[in-house]
Amino acid sequence: MTRGTGRGGGSAAPRSVDVARLAGVSQKTVSRVFNDEPYVSADVRRRVLEAAEQLGYRRNNAARALASGRTRSIGVVTLGTALYGPASLLMGLERVVRDTGYALRVVNTMEGDPAGIAGAVDSLLDQGVDGIVISEPIDEDADGGGSSVGVDVPVLVLGAPPPVDAPTVLAAGGGADVMARVAVEHLLDLGHATVHHLAGPQRWYAAKDRLEGWRSALVAHGRPVPRVVEGDWSASSGHAAGRELASDDSLTSVFVANDDMAIGLIRALAEAGLRVPEDVSVVGFDDVPVAAFVTPPLTTVRQPFDSVAQEGLKRLVHAIENPGADPLPATDPPVDLVVRASTAPPPSKGGASTRS
């Protein structure tokens, strides 16, 4: 269908009455279709949408905001970083929000600024957003000395939330501890006596959750809990940790809190003469695009960024548009362990090993 240029082929912007005339329905029906109201047949909905497409019609969101008291916008508070997890989650939100009829307004915070979240929230409220997503991965108030952020619109928090005082607070994107347990249990099922852990920086909620999942899996299976080595999410910190761990004769497997550190660790193990997975098995976390193409291809936990964004925004929009109603129920995030070539049973005591 060819996109038109408005009434009579002129330059004036098409209106809902033009869509109604072309579709052979009332203007009220056009409004019902674009407001996604019930009691509109599939055939009528199709005719209205095709007429709108042909005319190049767009809803007047400014007028709708005046009529409804809403701006049809959602604010996002997120850490200003290029790290894979936060950046992928923001991209997931941007992809999903297109289907909600809302615009996205993003304010970045900076690591090390305890007042960053409050300032970002204030900025978004000044813009009149209808709801706020807080995707803040760092505990900037680790000592518990801060106060809660007051918000008068529904809030969706991704991961572990900072203190928020709002009429509705929803949570999504948790479960990293469960995903970590699955990774550790995969290594235990292969026959490893225990699993070492290269953790992320413990100011990050995700790093804390993954460490807790690792620890709880070992305790539940009655296995020794080795000393934790901490990195900073970078491949270089993984390389440094790998050099340290390579000197531990008890090392046969490592669960690493993200893929970048796992890649650095594997390089350090190779430089120390240890083979992956023949001598040491390695599991990462995230499933970054390059994970399938390193040597060996990396076994890792795939993060469900898009499904978290989709469910979270669906629940937030419901809370915005149905004030006072019960929130939509949350579902557990999927756990997707991608098994590749970096994990194997531990070397047998009598078998060949590169350890001296």
Could you give the distance between the termini?
72 Å
Quaternary? single chain
How many DSSP helices?
A: 11
Largest sheet, in brief, is: 6 strands, mixed
Secondary structure topology:
Layout: H1 16-23, H2 27-34, H3 42-55, H4 61-68, E1 73-79, H5 84-97, E2 103-109, H6 116-126, E3 131-135, E4 149-150, E5 155-158, E6 164-165, E7 169-172, H7 176-189, E8 196-199, H8 205-220, E9 229-230, H9 235-245, E10 253-256, H10 259-271, E11 281-286, E12 299-302, H11 305-321, E13 336-338
Parallel strand pairs: 1-2, 1-3, 3-5, 4-6, 5-7, 8-9, 8-10, 10-11, 11-12
Antiparallel strand pairs: 12-13
Helix pairs in contact: 1-2, 1-3, 5-11, 7-8, 9-10
Question: What structural keywords apply?
Answer:
13 strands; five-stranded parallel beta sheet; disordered N terminus; 356 residues; single chain; alpha/beta; elongated; six-stranded mixed beta sheet; 11 helices
Task: Report what the structure shows.
It is built from eleven helices and 13 strands. By secondary structure, it is of the alpha/beta class. The protein has a six-stranded mixed beta sheet with strand order 9-8-10-11-12-13, sandwiched between helices. The chain is elongated, with a radius of gyration of 26 Å. The N terminus is likely disordered.
